[in-house]
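The records we work with from here on pair a chain with its fold. Each token is a code from a learned vocabulary of local backbone shapes. A record is reproduced here so that you can trace the correspondence yourselves:

_____
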Amino acid sequence: MAERVFLHVGAPKTGTTYLQHILWNNRETLKQAGFLLPGTRTAHYQAMGDLRRGLWHDPAGTWTWDRMAATARDWPGTVILSEEMLGAATAEEAASAIERFAPAEVHVVVAGRDLWRTVPSSWQQAVRARGLGRFGAYVTALRSGVYPQFWQHQTPLPILERWGATLPPERRHLVTVPAAGADPELLWARFSEVVGIPAGLCRTDVEQGRGNTSLGAAETELLRRVNVALGDDYPLRAPYVNAVHRHLQNPVLMLRPRGERFSVPAEHADWLDAVAHQMVEELKAFPCHVVGDLDDLLPADVSVLRSPDDVTDAELAQTAVETIVGMLRHAETLVAEAAPPPPRRRRGRMTRMLSLVMRALTPS
């Protein structure tokens, strides 16, 4: 049985993609040093879905949570599981997940990021998951308590409380995401310190991919309008992922030069700063192992940038034209890669996506 199991459970938008790229690109090196990442990146996601069920469960998935636990039983060293969607598990699901690794010493790792960056990232993530609402309305709703799941699933203390309820304080770990502008390797250094990975063991100059690259204000607003134009077409999850992610978001929008950053509207700045200070005070009172500085969770760069709600129709039209060009190039790549004749279904989806981009130009 594994001696120790580290469950890295999020939160989303806290550098998880960056950390996972380093882990998986160094998998063999880690294995030789006694650290096992069971299965594949997809396996961790499938196991999460098996644990949480509902929307996330893939009945065709071959990796269950029990299979993860069984794999850990066959490993004599340290096991690492990393999946940020685990952070939204209920307290009951978390307790059940931990129990199944007994008698291994289970640790939970949660990362926290300052709210000034988390809130815009959270809205963008919602848009990328077929969200329809405007950014300003989203922030207003957060402030009025309409979205309690944001505070429960994307801030560190509630996640630590749920996942750490059955664990001693020394096995509950909070890693703070360094302030904006810091060396990104500092986050890896903090994470690897918690897990016990020796400094210098892993290459950190690995290809990070674009799986969670942030979109600019115009790109995100364009995608939101595409979602509105979709109507009832391509419902979550598989249809939307297979069409919009595959043909629009990942190969086109994600590959554009980084667009204009955006921030919380000025009228909400003081409120968010007060919430961040309260969050830090509550974390100080919660018994856990902190790696980093809790002040990293306070907004450092509070410069107010333009909101996606303020993107003009002219700017959006130019972004849409460039996006259509990108989709045409992507279509040519698909045709070149496909065995002749090109799949008619795939070309039909591309035509549908181009039509939706044009419809999205109509303000909503």
